[in-house]
Each structure stands twice: as structure tokens, then as C-alpha cells.
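2024-03-11 09:14:02 INFO receiving multi-entity request
2024-03-11 09:14:02 INFO entity count = two
2024-03-11 09:14:03 INFO echoing inputs for audit
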Amino acid sequence: MIILVSLLVLLMLCAAIAALVFRDLLAAVIASCVVSLLASILFYFLHAPDVAMAEASIGAALVTAIFVIALGRTRRYEE
Amino acid sequence: MRIFLSLVVLAVIAVGIGKTLMEIPFGEDTTNVGGYYIQSGRDDTGAANIVTSVVVGYRAFDTLGEVTVLFVAAVGLGAVLAVGSASGRRRDVEPASLVLYTGCRFLFPLILLFGAYIFIHGHLTPGGGFQGGAIVASAFLLVYLGCRGRRIRHGWSKATESLGGLVFVGLGLLGLTAAGHFFLSNYLPKGTVNHLFSAGIIPIIYVAIGFKVGAELAGVIDDLVEESE
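2024-03-11 09:21:47 INFO inference complete, emitting structure
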């Protein structure tokens, strides 16, 4: 259990750092989506299925879609 | 100089956060209210899901505030985007391939069904109005992405949203008329725990919230997609 949780937290940290580092903003948005998805898995393993469901549907799906739509209106690459 | 100043500010914030975190006894139950909810939430509200018994039972008034915040945010976004797009032009978008189109049309009712299941069973299984509403909205998002050119009718989404809010507030106000009850108190018969028709007004309120949140988030997506085309 503790190994699983630490692995998930480590992966979340990697994805969060990747979201900061990427110059391609679409890749950064996908990386932040991965953070949300891993957070929802973490919530599920910590016995909070209600929060996991909200995180997966809002954090991973809707917020990512809104960011991608916003990227379509602006530039894709950071200068 | 600037670096020095920012270092000082950073140190002050770090010391403040550190001091505060040292004072908090992690892992200990410092209030009694959580224990009370776990002990008697099931008997008080009749909901098998304790999170629901707190969200729509004990703290229903807070949930009304939450729903109001979401409503104001959706209306504000619509107003901001409406100011930007005065032209109302519509470019012709490239139609999606047949496989994508058919797949989206096949998945759309299934996702709607799943969202409806989540908010109808909010008092029995994990989830509830907010989660179910978000899943319903993601079904509309799939249609916007896959079957381009299809739109929800604005009148219907606005009407659903208003009806959800009215049912929520109206049920709460009905509670005032019954003797010995307060705003949003659970005055309907609680029934047998773990049955679909149980927990009094909680399932009705969650269905109303599910429709309201689904219509609101679908409207937000609709505003954004329309703006970006």
C-alpha cells in the first residue's frame, strides 16, 4: 500500500515537473491532465471514491478540454 | 536588492507555514462532529453513503451556496465571451470521419446513462449530483469534439438549469411549512436504508443538482467551443 502510494506520488511529481518544463503547451496540458488522473487514482486508494470521481471527471476531462480549446485560440509553443 | 527582498519574503512565509504546521496535530480527531456524522449519519438521514448524508443532509445549505457559486461562474463566463464575439460569424468546420462520428454517437447515450446512474444513486453508492453532472457534461463535450457542427439548444439547457435550481430551493422552502422543520430539512419519510427510494428528499435534490450541474457545464463548453470556431 505504502509502495503504491509513494509510486503514485512520485509519478505525479514527475508529470507536474514535466508540465512546467515542456515548451510545447499541448504536451504541458496533457501532463497536467496526467497529474489529475493520478490524483484521482490516489484518492481511490485512500478510500475517497467520491472525490476520485469528481477529480477524474472535472480535473482530468473538462479542465483539459477547456485548456485545449483555449490553446486552439492562442499559440501552441511557448517562446 | 530585489533578490534579497524576495528571499526575505520567502523566509518569512516559510517560517509562518512551518510554525502553523507544527501546531496542527496530524492524524488526531480534534473535533467531535466528524465522529458524530460517522456514528449516526445513517440513522439521521437514511442515506447509505455518509458523504452524501453530510453534503445534502447536514450541510445542504452549504451545497445550495456551492450550486449558486457555480451558476454565477457559468453566467459570468457566458457574459464575458458574449462581449468578445459580437460578429456571430460561423466558419465551416471540417467534418469528422465516419468512424469517429459513429463512435461518438454510440458512446453519447451510454455516458449520459452512466452520469444519470451516478446522480440517481448518490445516496447509495459513491458519487452524487456534482460528479454525475460533470459526467453528463463530458458526454456533450464528446459530441462537440467528435460530431462537429452539432449543438445543444440554448433554451433547453437554460430551462433545465433553472428548473434544477427551482426544485432545490422549492423543496427546501417546502420544509419550512412542515411543523418542527427548518430550511432544507429532511421531512419526507426516510424508508429503508440501501433502497433506491429512501433517504427522503436527498435523492430528489441530487437529481436536481445533477441536471443543473450537467446543463451548466455543458453550457460552459458550448460557449467556449462556439467562441473558438
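2024-03-11 09:21:48 INFO post-check: The mean pLDDT of chain B is 83.
2024-03-11 09:21:48 INFO post-check: Chain B is about 70% helix and 0% strand.
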